[in-house]
Amino acid sequence: DVPIIMIDRDVPGDLRASIVRNDHKSGMRAAVEHLLDLGHRRIAYVTGRREISTVWERLAGYHDALAERGVALDRRLV
Q1: Contact between 30 and 43 (Cβ < 8 Å)
Q2: With the CA atoms of 31, 48, 63 and 78 taken in that order, what torsion angle do they form, in degrees rounded to the nearest 10?
Q3: What is the phi/psi pair of residue 72, to 5°?
Q4: Which of 22, 21, 25 is nearest to 6 (CA)?
Q5: pLDDT tens-digit profile of 11-57?
Q6: Which pLDDT belongs to residue 35?
Q7: What is the pLDDT of residue 21?
Q8: pTM for this one?
Q9: How far apart are CA 32 and CA 41, in angstroms?
Q10: Backbone phi and psi for residue 61, each to the nearest 5 degrees, phi listed first
Q11: Residue 67, pLDDT score
């Protein structure tokens, strides 16, 4: 009977909890687009452990923003 709120995590099937999630992919995409709008073309992405869902969601947004603007991905910047 204790209220539980999970932040950026999935809830196991037997646990009743509320979930608060960020849209990490769209957020990263917006951040990279802003930097591109300012004229930057070499934008690094510093990441954490790839098995964490928020890490790969942000990385997908990073890739999408670069690709949409025709900026080649430089893997040395990831």
Answers
A1: no
A2: 100
A3: -65, 140
A4: 21
A5: 777 777 888 889 999 999 999 999 999 999 999 999 888 888 889 99
A6: 98
A7: 86
A8: 0.80
A9: 10
A10: -65, -40
A11: 97
Residue 60 has pLDDT above 90, yes or no: yes
Neighbours of 14 (CB within 10 A): 5
The runs of H, that is alpha helices, within 38-74 are: 53-68
Cα dihedral angle (13, 17, 22, 23), rounded to 10 degrees? 40
How distant, in Å, are the alpha carbons of 7, 17, 18, 39, 71 from that of 68?
A: 30, 37, 35, 15, 8
Distances (CA, A) of 62 to 31, 36, 46, 47, 48: 8, 11, 11, 11, 14
Determine the pLDDT at residue 49: 85
